[in-house]
Amino acid sequence: MNPNVTVVSHPLVQDKLSRMRRKDTPTPEFRRLLREISLLLAYEVTRDLPLTTQRIETPLTAMDAPVLAGPKLCFVSILRAGNGILDGMLDLMPNVPVGHVGLYRDPKTLEAVEYYFKLPVDAAQRLVIVTDPMLATGHSAAAAVTRIKNAGVTRLLYVSLLSAPEGIKAFGEAHPDVPVFTAAIDSHLNDHGYIVPGLGDAGDRIYGTK
Ligand code: URA
């Protein structure tokens, strides 16, 4: 197993993921489950954030209380399915600013083409958590992270719900410095680039477009 990959095997995450995979799970439930899992993933992703102490007064006495030391965080969603992960993360950390990256694959050249890119102005000073539910081929994930690095960001984490071994490998080769957090690594990609057994098209299932 790639040491840069953390599979979040918490039973609540696994149970909710299994409910998302079922083909008859309706859109509102799918979205709610993704939001709940994302909150739990956010908890794991931030586990090693450094702490410092701050002098505070409780009703009884003064104490040196643990508080986050920084760096500050930033979420970046890869459009459009990445937005499905944002809600749960923002439930846990509502003050974190959010950037967006929109890429599509040119059907002729197969190159990733950017159609939208916006980061918070001080993103380069932040630890950037990139979100996209499906790490499939890894190509658009790698292209998005390259683009974010080109904007000056040096500290990144990547969060997916489901990953394919092919995507883990390709992304790890492109960005060995970026740790990946995922709820499961499935069997393989099919000929259409879908993760098997997977859960289908994440964007369509989040937004009810199919
Ligand atoms: N994107 C999806 O939404 N689903 C897959 O299985 C692969 C990529």
Outline the structure in words.
The chain is of the alpha/beta class and 210 residues long. It has a single domain (5-47, 72-207), classed as Rossmann fold, CATH 3.40.50. Helix content is 32%, strand content 29%. It is built from six helices and 14 strands. The chain has helices spanning 11-21, 27-45, 83-92, 139-150, 165-174, 202-207, and strands spanning 5-7, 51-57, 62-68, 73-78, 98-105, 112-118, 127-131, 134-135, 155-159, 162-163, 180-182, 184-185, 188-189, 195-196. The strands form four sheets. It has a seven-stranded mixed β-sheet. A three-stranded parallel β-sheet has the order 8-10-12. A hairpin with a 4-residue loop joins strand 2 and strand 3. The two termini are 35 Å apart. The structure holds uracil. Uracil binds at residues 81, 134, 136, 193-195, 198, 201-203.
For the record, what CATH class applies? Alpha Beta
Low-confidence segments, ≥5 residues, pLDDT <50? Answer: none
Rg, please?
18 Å
What is the CA–CA distance across the termini? 35 Å
Give the number of DSSP strands.
Answer: 14
Mean of residue pLDDT values? 95
Q: What string, H for helix and E for strand, traces the elements in order?
A: EHHEEEHEEEEHEEHEEEEH
Ligand names: uracil
CATH topology: Rossmann fold
Structural class: alpha/beta
When the domains are counted, the total is 1
